[in-house]
Inverse folding.
């Protein structure tokens, strides 16, 4: 089926397929020395003679890019992908058994894949950002991988494995990814691990704007963000104490959106916090914009209603409508999570026997995402898409064994640049 799909795609878009094939060959030959270097740094090949890290990484890349429903199917079909098989000098199925492959996902340190991500992220940073999104906007949010409790004996509660991401929509880039080790950590506690406890990440976000949802509402963390020079946009929590100081003039609609979806009701200077609360060390002088946002016509057909937002921010230099729009841009990270789970199939991890294999599944999904973003840029496409990922699936089978004939010289890539992991 895969070969037939490749043939039909080549007939319809031969020029695009040739460019994508050249790009994929170049990426794989560049990744090979980086994989070897990362394996040596984290000792991923220690006590392993027959199944090295390079072969393991090629099998994982093939499994994720080919769209196979199971590891066993990917293992059986891997010899047909002659390009990847030549890259890792695959001999036959007797050299590496399926049991070795499945067990290594739990026993081999996931850093051998995670170490590839920062270098790819640095290349995405050099891509021109989307013109329709603010270049200085970052979105903080988290998602959870809900695994069956009966298959996950190491999981202490039913919340699943949490993943916190600081995402840059203009570049489609997950700038910082943190896999929470404790299932009971809340969202605002995850902000500490993702941003506040990392000096390099705080420096990266200085003079930038971070938007996040209501679950991150924390007076002390708002103060820490402001002390670090980081702007924020979030929703007001109804249980928080707030004093209105002054009303500001505001516009009534936002013409940049269709049908005037945004209607600003109030723009106010407020004081967040209570002077009688002993835990509140400092009251925060902020801005609160109250606005209604009408749903899109497609959402109206499904019964969606108009929503009233009360948005807190320290950005006094923006118009009220721009503040509301910054918060609405938060939806892009939800689309990113849906892309990882439904298209790259993060909802089907490589296994559930240990936390290591789930961690490896997350890094593999992020790696495939970055490769797709770079592929879209190399081909001059506006953004990544499921169609582009399908093209990568099909072109895998048309790669030839030339990958092993002229290996590139080793390159020195940083294992963990500051602020990513």
């Amino acid at each position: 089926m895969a070969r037939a799909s490749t043939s039909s795609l080549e007939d319809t878009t031969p020029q695009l397929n040739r460019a994508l094939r050249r790009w994929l060959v170049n990426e794989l030959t560049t990744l090979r020395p980086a994989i070897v270097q990362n394996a040596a740094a984290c000792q991923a090949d220690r006590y392993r003679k027959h199944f090295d890290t390079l072969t393991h990484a090629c099998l994982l890349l093939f499994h994720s890019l080919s769209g196979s429903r199971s590891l066993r199917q990917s293992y059986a079909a891997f010899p047909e992908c002659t390009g990847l098989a030549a890259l890792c000098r695959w001999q036959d199925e007797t050299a590496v058994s399926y049991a070795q492959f499945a067990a290594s996902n739990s026993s081999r340190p996931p850093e051998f894949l995670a170490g590839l991500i920062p270098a790819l992220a640095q290349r995405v940073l050099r891509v021109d950002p989307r013109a329709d999104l603010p270049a200085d906007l970052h979105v903080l949010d988290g998602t959870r991988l809900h695994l069956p409790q009966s298959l996950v004996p190491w999981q202490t509660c039913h919340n699943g494995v949490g993943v916190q991401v600081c995402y840059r929509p203009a570049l489609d880039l997950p700038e910082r990814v943190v896999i929470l080790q404790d299932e009971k950590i809340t969202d605002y506690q995850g902000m500490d691990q993702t941003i506040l406890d990392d000096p390099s990440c705080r420096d990266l976000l200085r003079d930038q704007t971070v938007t996040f949802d209501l679950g991150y509402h924390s007076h002390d963390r708002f103060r820490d963000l402001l002390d670090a020079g980081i702007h924020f946009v979030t929703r007001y929590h109804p249980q928080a104490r707030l004093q209105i100081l002054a009303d500001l003039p505001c516009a009534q609609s936002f013409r940049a959106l269709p049908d005037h979806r945004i209607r600003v009701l109030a723009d106010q200077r407020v004081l967040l916090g209570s002077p009688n609360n002993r835990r509140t060390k400092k009251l925060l002088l902020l801005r609160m914009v109250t606005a209604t946002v009408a749903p899109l016509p497609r959402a109206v057909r499904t019964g969606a209603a108009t929503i009233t937002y009360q948005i807190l921010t320290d950005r006094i230099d923006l118009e009220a409508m721009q503040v509301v729009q910054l918060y609405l841009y938060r939806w892009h990270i939800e689309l990113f999570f849906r892309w990882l789970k439904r298209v790259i199939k993060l909802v089907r991890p490589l296994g559930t026997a240990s936390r290591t294999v789930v961690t490896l599944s997350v890094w593999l999904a992020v790696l495939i995402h970055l490769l797709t973003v770079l592929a879209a840029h190399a081909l001059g496409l506006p953004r990544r898409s499921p169609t582009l990922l399908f093209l990568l699936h099909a072109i895998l089978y048309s790669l030839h064994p030339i990958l092993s004939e002229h290996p590139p010289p080793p390159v020195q890539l940083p294992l963990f640049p500051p602020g990513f992991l």
The two ends are 38 Å apart (CA to CA). The longest strand covers residues 262-272. The chain has 16 helices and nine strands. Residues 2-117+351-404 form one domain.
